[in-house]
Amino acid sequence: MENVKKNKKGNCVMEELLSLRGQAPEFQLRADSCACSHFDWPRGESVLYTPEERAGFVDELTEKTKRIFELGRSVSKAFVEIGYLLREINNNYLIRFACIRSQTFEDMGDFGFKVFGFQKSTTYNLIGIVTEFGNGEGGLRKAYQDYSQTQLVCLLPFTGYERKMFTPEVTVAEIKELRAGLKKYPLKEWRGSDFGKTITWRSELERVRKAAAEEAVAEKKEKKEERTRGFLEMLSSAESSEPEISSLSPQTEAADVSAETVTESVPAAVGKNRLELKNREERKKWVENVFEGASPYWTISELDLKIYRYVFANGAKLYRFNGVTYWEAWSTEPGREDTTSKYFITDNKCPKFDMCRARSVNQVVDWLTEHGKEI
Q1: At what angle do helices 120-133 and 78-91 cross, to 10 degrees?
Q2: Number of independent structural domains in the chain
Q3: Residue where one domain finishes, among candidates 156, 181, 206
Q4: Region at 207 (left for phi over 0; alpha for psi -120 to 50; beta for the rest)
Q5: What is residue 277's three-state secondary structure?
Q6: Confidence of residue 298 (pLDDT cuts 50, 70, 90)
Q7: Does residue 3 belong to any structural domain of this protein?
Q8: Final residue of a domain: which of 156, 172, 207?
């Protein structure tokens, strides 16, 4: 029989699966179907079947197979009756004595594929639908009559009480999203009676989406902070390996740290003489203008970050970090870009960069006041 077409993901489309082509095959009695006893699944015991009984299995299988082909040409809700027929074939194990031109069947999945072109999952899904949602009389229970075949397939993995929270308005994509979300963010407290009342598919979908969004923000912040710490450690390592201040000049280049992510430039200035800043107003103005027109000491393109440096007469160093992407990780509002420049000062008390020691302009002025005689 001609193979059924598949969609881009490789899964058979139900409408194509049920649009069966060709004629139903004629089954023959298997040549190896001897009169020895066979295990009967429904009875749970070994039974010795007569030749007439073995032929009866094949006739019944042929009859049900022909009906499936007839249903396949009408589509609509035919998948329900097809599911019942497949379940009867499976439960009564009608394929045990049958073959097509000496070709036998390993199981129901193999039978569905060889005879109808169904993928194995489709055969078992059709059986699962009538087993889980059927009314036992050839149709679906009232609660599931307005669902499509694809929706019902997606509902199969849910437990009976979980299915109560769904309505036919839910889309297949939403069912799949919710199933994945519940695996990662399960309900902490619930009762079976809550489903369909206080717990609905809409409320749960909103909950798992919110949880996923919060986790994504936290992961983004954590990764950025981790990456930032790495760059600060790299910067501290490079700074500690520099020559003594006395040998530096304004044209000294930064140490070669990472050619891929760091563009090096000259320092803004090296203070050989002490600053003559008389009051707080002058100190604040100095901080705001010291890097005016200066080239960045380091440019880290990966973080969209520019670093400026000033070396004081006592060897302490003032850094200004400009970079909205870099500082987003420490913003008080998740997702907000903080455009304010941040300052670092390294000295004998704080020789390495520490994210918790970032300073504002006023905090730098306080430091200048404290160390006025040294710088």
Answers
A1: 100
A2: 2
A3: 156
A4: alpha
A5: coil
A6: confident
A7: no
A8: 156
Check residue 221 and give its pLDDT: 79
Residue with tokens 């039974």, as numbered in its chain: 47
Amino acid occupying residue 289: N
Instruction: Kindly report, residue by residue over 26-85, the tens digit of the pLDDT.
Output: 888 887 766 565 666 565 677 788 888 888 988 999 999 988 887 765 555 688 999 999
- For tokens 């970090």, what's the residue? 321
Cα separation, 140 vs 147, whole angstroms? 10
User: Residue 123 pLDDT more than 90?
Assistant: yes
- Yes or no: say if 238 and 298 are a contact pair by the CB < 8 Å rule: no
Domain-embedded: residue 375: no
* Residue 178 within any structural domain of the chain: no
Q: Alpha carbon 132 to chain centroid distance?
A: 29
Position 92 in a domain: yes
**27 and 152 share one domain:** yes
Question: Can you give the residue range of the structural domain that contains 342?
Answer: 242-370
Name every residue whose Cβ is closer than 8 Å to that of residue 109 and which is 6 or more positions away in sequence: 120, 121, 123, 124
Q: Are strands 342-346 and 317-322 parallel, antiparallel or unpaired?
A: antiparallel
pTM across the whole model? 0.57
In 3-state terms, what secondary structure has residue 219?
helix
152 & 23 share domain: yes
pLDDT of 302 higher than 70: no
Residue-level pLDDT at 272: 57
pLDDT at 363 over 80: yes
Q: In the 8-state DSSP scheme, what is residue 333?
A: S
**What is the structure's pLDDT at 160?**
94
Same domain, 148 and 246: no
Residues facing residue 342 across a β-bridge: 321
Cα–Cα separations (whole angstroms), residue 91 to 87, 168, 217, 240, 253: 6, 30, 51, 77, 81
